[in-house]
Amino acid sequence: MTEQQPILPDVLEPGLDVVFCGTQAGAASARLGAYYAGPGNKFWPVLHEIGLVPERLRPEEFRTILRYGIGLTDVAKRSSGPDSALRGGHFDVAGFTARIAASRPRILAFNGKRAAQAALGIREGRLAYGPQAHRLADADIYILPSTSGAAAGFWSIEPWKQLAMAVTGIQSR
Q1: What CA–CA distance (Å, rounded) separates 71 from 21?
Q2: Of these four, 31, 87, 110, 170, which has the most CB atoms within 10 Å of its CB?
Q3: Backbone angles phi, psi at 146, to 5 degrees
């Protein structure tokens, strides 16, 4: 039996300024083979708005994100759809941790609390948006409001701006 391939490939390399980690590919992203491709997802416009990329990228350009010191991954690589359909067996925390340890980003930014809960083993209700006190594989951790259209009721750009200031500080060193 062959191992199932990831829905979306990791976009990682050693020494990135920030790696964004989602929970799993949404249905539109899985269908189109591109990160954050859902019509209501704010990810690509927000990256430009907060100044991490100089132009608004389209989901199908996701592989070009490395040129800006940014990487992409998910905690559940072999499933797709809404987060509500996720079960514990979908998460590959050991594989995720190994990928982060191998790429050693300066900042690991979770796009939504569900991804952070799964990856960090933290129960709901104990997570706040913004920088976290603990680290993973020597990376600073930020938890951000999800850019998914399904999470629009929890949206705030402020933690994203805070992350951009941290990343900009890294890039100016």
Answers
A1: 9
A2: 110
A3: -60, 140
In whole angstroms, give the CA distance from residue 150 to residue 41.
Answer: 8
For residue 34, what are its two tokens?
């591109």
How many CB atoms neighbour CB 55 within 10 A? Answer: 8
Among the listed residues 72, 71, 69, 99, the one whose alpha carbon sits nearest the alpha carbon of residue 173: 69
- What amino acid is encoded at 129 in this protein? Y
Tokens of 10: 């990791």
Residue type, 74: D
SS3 of the chain: helix, strand, coil, percent, to 5: 40, 20, 45
In tens, the pLDDT along 26-47 reads 889 999 999 999 999 999 999 9
Q: What is the DSSP-derived secondary structure letter of residue 99?
A: H
